Amino acid sequence: MPYFRQSRWLLASSSSFLLFLILSAETTNVDARQKASPHKSKAEPTTASEESPIEKLGRMIAGTWAIDASMEPDEAASKPGKKDVRKSVIRFGPGKLALTEDYRTNGDQDTQVAFGIFWWDGKGKGYRTMFCEDRDPSGCSVYNGLGNWEGSDWVFRHEYEEDNKKVRIKQVVTATSPSSFVAKFYRSENDAPMKLWWTVKHSKTEVH
What we know:
Elements (H helix, E strand, L loop, with lengths): L29 H7 L16 H9 L1 E9 L10 E11 L5 E10 L4 E10 L4 E8 L6 E3 L3 E5 L2 E10 L2 E13 L2 E10 L5 E12 L2
């Protein structure tokens, strides 16, 4: 789902980022605990954890998808719409700490190849993402926005400056069936109302 990054490569100087959370543990006195609770075994199992934020996102978008992407025409600039097709593969990384996307399309924008990573930022309380693309002069860019759930939709927002204009992007990902979802990208310049920019339909062809 790389369309929200086309107009600018944000935070291009970022050379690394964390894809995992460092878990802190309280230091305890085992002997004191055993005396206070003599009937508990040393290896008492913990309760099963709930679904992680990245697993929740993966439940909707992980898989191999046929892509049908269309760009809205720009009537003010007399520019026609555009269309791209091909496929995207989204899968979990090691330990399900992140999701990766292998995105390949061709069409009116010629061939587009991109690699993306989505992860949960526990400190920021939201999803973060980055993409590497052959058109990115920096190679890879980390985006400064945060994604989160709004009802059953996954929404990612970010903004940047381009040609002395403040540009805002909003991406809304909606499941349309157990085997399909649509990503809609909205764009605004200089605080103007958001307008639909790209619609990217995903139809599942395999399960990962």
